[in-house]
Amino acid sequence: MVSGDESRGRVIRMPLVVLLLGLTPLLGSGRAGGTAASGREPLGAPSAREGASDADGTSTTGDGAIGDRATGDRATGGKGASRSGRPGDLVRYIPVDGAPAGIRAWRVVYRSRTFGASTVQVSGLVLAPRTPSATTVPTGGRRVVSFAHGTTGVADSCAPSAAKPPLAAAAWMFSLVRAGHVVTLTDYAGLGTPGEHAIYVAGPEGRAVLDIARAVRAIKPAGAGRDVVLWGYSQGGQAVLSAGAQAASYAPDLRIHGVVASAPLADLPRSLAGLEQRSDGVGYLILAMIGASDADPRIDLTRYLKPKGRHLLTVARTRCAPDLLTASTGVNVRAAFTQDPLRQPQFAAAFARQRDEVTRRMTPTLILQGDRDTVIRRQDTDSAVRRLCSAGTTVDYRRYPQADHGTILSASMSDLTTWITRRFASHPQPVTNICAVQPAPTDPR
Hints:
Elements: H1 4-10, H2 15-21, H3 24-28, E1 66-67, E2 74-75, E3 90-95, E4 103-113, E5 119-129, E6 142-148, H4 174-178, E7 182-186, H5 202-215, E8 224-233, H6 235-250, E9 255-262, H7 268-275, H8 281-295, H9 307-318, H10 321-328, H11 333-336, H12 345-358, E10 365-370, H13 378-391, E11 395-400, H14 408-423, H15 434-437
Parallel strand pairs: 6-7, 6-8, 8-9, 9-10, 10-11
Antiparallel strand pairs: 1-2, 3-4, 4-5, 5-7
């Protein structure tokens, strides 16, 4: 998630943090750049670069179909993109220019599952070390860090892979790639590809995180293996916790070594209740209601919106998160909604399901939280940690007294990279478990 106050106040002071969210390009290109009609090309459409070959001669056209990750079946790339397939099938990959020395990058389209049994196309980015030969790839393939981004919005132009410059949203990942890892960055289903982005709905987010880690194995120059750590920030924290909870049953072909959640949206009902009190909180409620209605078509959003709320709904569907938060600043719940959505049974139940889905038992998990965060508050993350402990998850919970929702990334990056390195070790050290070492954190209120 991104606070309207923090996004506006930190664009200059903390460019890399905002680049990670894919928001600086949206702000920097002017307000028109935040619209769905911007000059950015949704990755679901054919690219002008299709028909080219990357440095290894891997074709990205329909004629040079991309080999499937597991069976050798072929998923067509280019204009003949496949319309069906399994979760994790790679549909297309296109080289991206502008990567730093020693790094190569691709924009990708792959298949994932949202709510039904069929699959949909999802876009994203892949980064990998640029090496002189395949002999430098370790036995079993390179380790993969599958990253999930924070709130950018629901319009297709808000997809991080569509940012300008092309790798703006991936800048924070370069150090992990230089350390020898492959990094994947999903846009989530419906964000940059046809369909709706069910924002703050945990299931599809988590499956998108897992399926891009499967799909990258079909990009031979990347050299990716099956060993994966999941990392997400804010909304992405919700996504990777969902992925961790689903991994054993949904993606047993992956070896998930750990989950890292930075300032995670893990207790959606509590976080929305806190955000509701902020000057820009109505914007977050609008987004959460969009996600709930996408997950349950029986919910008629317009029934709960006054004219001001309907205006904000239009902003949410056509522009990106900073514009929505700006438009909603100073608008209170009574002015936007016919009834407070947090007190309506269908919304309350939908939001509670997201919390329950991400606080189940999973692989060892690192939670990183800033005590000064006013978007994802410490007490809300404390609540999620208690639930994870109760479910039997091993939780390493680290708090940073001076960090807020933006600075948590820079404050915790050293701890995060060390933790990931140790989880990928041949004989990983035991993870510090707050659930076993001391009582789960208590709510100070």
